[in-house]
Specification:
Length: 140
């Protein structure tokens, strides 16, 4: 549907309610460091306060979940770096807006699990993207 500004318009006008179908929101956090409070995070937290199903990535963008093996370990992928920019340095034939489209389908299940996993404060292992998808699927 587009970026955060389009989302605000849809929510403010309650346009999505006209479709009478379950819906949720999933945005990149756009964090550049661990405790960075971004516009996207604020938007998601406001939606959650309204009781709406809304999620954001723990990492900067969905591209930060790509596995470095896709790039022969030549692309630096950390939680908060600009992976699209790094991939473009590696493969300038793939435009920054196409990185996800080109490389995500090449990932194996094991690679996705590895990049989405994190330990909570109590030490429990979680699989972030899987858990978000499960919550979204529970809406229907």
């Amino acid at each position: 549907m587009g970026g955060c500004n389009n989302l605000k318009e849809w929510v403010t006008r309650r346009l999505i309610d006209n479709f009478q179908i379950p819906w949720g929101v999933f945005l990149d956090s756009d964090k550049e460091w661990e405790d960075h409070l971004t516009k996207n995070i604020q938007t998601i937290e406001n939606l959650q306060e309204q009781g709406l199903p809304a999620f954001y990535t723990r990492k900067r963008e969905i591209e930060n979940y790509l596995h470095s093996a896709l790039f022969n370990y030549d692309v630096e992928i950390q939680n908060f770096n600009d992976v699209k920019k790094e991939v473009y340095k590696y493969d300038n034939k793939t435009g920054k807006s196409r990185v996800l489209d080109v490389y995500w389908p090449k990932m194996s299940f094991e690679q996705i699990r590895e990049t989405e996993s994190y330990a909570s404060e109590d030490g429990e292992t979680h699989f972030e993207l899987t858990e978000i998808v499960m919550e979204i699927l529970a809406l229907v």
